[in-house]
């Protein structure tokens, strides 16, 4: 077979010409997850992209209009660390790598829709990522709070649970992960637990059945806790927290009061109370002897009528029953009609708690297997979180017409200490959009998973300057017919991408909820020792090794 590069370029040119098909033909959207621009492709990449290329060619031969796009997941910690090591600007380093990697893809003769290319570190892309964040904030789905986080002492940033391995080490640095209390931004993905589960009826154990309902309690701090018995919150006797709870750490105003009575081998009744927003009663706070509650919870509501264990803790406390016993063995709920409507068979039907805006309380079905999405990162090379902090107004979202909020240029990066943007003295001060008074920009940046949670939409309309995408184009191409990616992204990325798709549907941006029809997992390419190559370190030969001696067709086949 002719391996001459000139012959390859002629073949690719013909493919690209043939790809210009009529818009009215039946569509087929094949998507391979976009790469991080490290500078070099390895054979695992070749395997992924030749699969999508093969599927694309096959569907074109069937007469379909094919979308097989390519882009770059260009923000993130690896680029910042590499730039620090080399004394370069992360943007300069990233753009140089993108140019090199695009040439490598061209050498493989892969037929991508390069006119649909996206790069997440460019303002014309992350403007719309920030726009979606503002939409989430306005919908009540983005919030900030103090939380105990996984802290990588080497990379100096927060890690998601999935980024910590079984030996409690960071996925990139290999350092032992520490627990640290930080103020973080979250997205309420758990609000969508039920619709996300309903769409995956055949996989109920992934998210866990949504049988829990969050309930808000107020002390000096706000405490939110999920319960499987929302109909019984009117008879809650106490709140119990684990010793690692955030109220016992950091700048918590009740920390000293809790520490005075803390004993690790017993349940400890404290002088701190929480205000039950449903009954206006004060509930005592108990520090449990347990390190963790069932379902990885750090707080539980003590409801003695529902639990023998809760009853034993509550005997020394003043509490009111919520179940009235009958001679036939049945029970009647007291003061709980608005949350429980069915006691006919001595069973309690779980329904969402009623909204009480005047008390700032709400509820929805969720699962204890899920956590809200922590998106704060204490690094430079990422999208600025589009919030300002005003002494009078609190956190205020940046108006949509003022987006994007671009990254300032910093003279140097060290990778140590607090968020680098805190040292951008000429940038950090701003004006509050609401009261026009002095304010400060948020200095954390967003997790890179926020970019990849919606990029499949942007591919359908990548040059739109007025909105993230036109609905008619997204509705034409979506859902993706085949999505090609490794299983390592099944827990985080697919969960976040499905959440954003459901949210966009509720916002009227698209007409469907599910973004993907089929996931194709390509597997791993291993060496002679049967160990998977380490993606976090420069130990993998590039795909050019294959094309140099054997040609693109052989490399594609072996990939």
Automatic annotation (TrEMBL):
Claim: Ligase is one of the keywords in the record: yes
GO cellular component: mitochondrion
Molecular function per GO: ATP binding; leucine-tRNA ligase activity
UniProt xrefs under InterPro entries: aa-tRNA-synth_I_CS, aa-tRNA-synth_Ia, Leu-tRNA-ligase, Rossmann-like_a/b/a_fold
Aminoacyl-tRNA synthetase class Ia domain mapped to chain residues: 23-201, 370-527
CDD domains assigned to the protein according to its UniProt record, in alphabetical order: LeuRS_core
E.C. no: 6.1.1.4
Chief localization: mitochondrion
Family: Belongs to the class-I aminoacyl-tRNA synthetase family.
Protein name, as recorded: leucine--tRNA ligase
Lineage: Eukaryota, Metazoa, Chordata, Craniata, Vertebrata
Gene designation per UniProt: LARS2
């Amino acid at each position: 077979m002719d391996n001459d590069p000139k012959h390859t370029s002629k073949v690719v040119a013909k493919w690209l010409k043939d790809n210009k098909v009529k818009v009215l033909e039946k569509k087929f959207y094949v998507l391979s997850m976009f790469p991080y621009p490290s500078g070099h492709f390895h054979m695992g990449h070749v395997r992924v992209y030749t699969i999508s290329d093969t599927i694309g060619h096959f569907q074109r031969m069937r007469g379909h209009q094919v979308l097989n796009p390519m882009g770059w997941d260009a923000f993130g910690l690896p680029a910042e660390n590499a730039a620090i090591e080399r004394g370069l600007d992360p943007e300069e380093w990233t753009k140089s790598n993108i140019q090199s990697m695009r040439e490598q893809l061209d050498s493989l003769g892969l037929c991508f829709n390069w006119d649909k290319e996206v790069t997440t570190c460019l303002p014309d892309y992350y403007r719309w990522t920030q726009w979606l964040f503002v939409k989430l904030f306005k919908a009540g789905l983005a919030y900030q709070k103090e939380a105990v986080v996984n802290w990588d002492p080497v990379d100096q940033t927060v890690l998601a649970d999935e980024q910590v391995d079984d030996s409690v080490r960071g996925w990139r640095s290999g350092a032992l992960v520490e627990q640290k209390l930080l103020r973080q931004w979250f997205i309420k993905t758990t609000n969508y637990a039920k619709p996300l589960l309903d769409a995956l009826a055949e996989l109920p154990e992934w998210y866990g059945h949504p049988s829990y309902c969050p309930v808000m309690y107020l002390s000096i701090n706000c405490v939110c806790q999920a319960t499987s018995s929302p109909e019984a919150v009117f008879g809650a006797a106490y709140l119990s927290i684990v010793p690692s709870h955030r109220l016992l750490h950091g700048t918590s105003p009740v920390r000293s009061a809790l520490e005075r009575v803390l004993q690790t081998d017993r349940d400890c009744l404290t002088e701190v109370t929480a205000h039950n927003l449903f009954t206006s009663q004060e509930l005592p706070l108990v520090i449990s002897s347990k390190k963790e509650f069932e379902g990885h919870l750090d707080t539980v509501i003590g409801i003695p009528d529902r639990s023998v264990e809760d009853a034993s803790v509550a005997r020394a406390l003043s509490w009111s029953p919520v179940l009235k016993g009958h001679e036939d063995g049945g029970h009647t709920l007291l003061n709980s009609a608005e949350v429980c409507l069915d006691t006919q068979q001595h069973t309690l039907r779980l329904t969402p708690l009623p909204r009480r805006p005047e008390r700032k309380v709400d509820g929805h079905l969720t699962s204890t297997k899920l956590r809200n999405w922590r998106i704060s990162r204490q690094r430079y090379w990422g999208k600025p979180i589009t919030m300002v902090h005003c002494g009078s107004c609190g956190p205020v979202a940046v108006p949509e017409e003022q987006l994007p909020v671009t990254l300032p240029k910093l003279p140097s990066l060290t990778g140590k200490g607090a968020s680098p943007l805190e040292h951008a003295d000429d940038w950090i001060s701003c004006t509050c959009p609401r009261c026009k008074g002095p304010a400060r920009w948020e200095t954390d940046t967003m997790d890179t998973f926020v970019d990849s949670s919606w990029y499949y939409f942007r591919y359908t309309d990548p040059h739109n300057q007025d909105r993230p995408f036109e609905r008619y184009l997204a509705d034409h191409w979506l859902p993706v017919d085949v999505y090609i990616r490794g299983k390592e992204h099944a827990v985080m990325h697919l969960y976040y991408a499905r959440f954003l798709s459901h949210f966009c549907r509720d916002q009227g941006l698209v007409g469907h909820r599910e973004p993907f029809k089929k996931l194709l997992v390509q597997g791993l390419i291993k060496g002679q020792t049967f160990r998977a190559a380490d993606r976090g370190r420069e130990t993998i030969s590039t795909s050019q090794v294959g094309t140099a001696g054997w040609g693109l067709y052989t490399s594609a086949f072996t990939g």
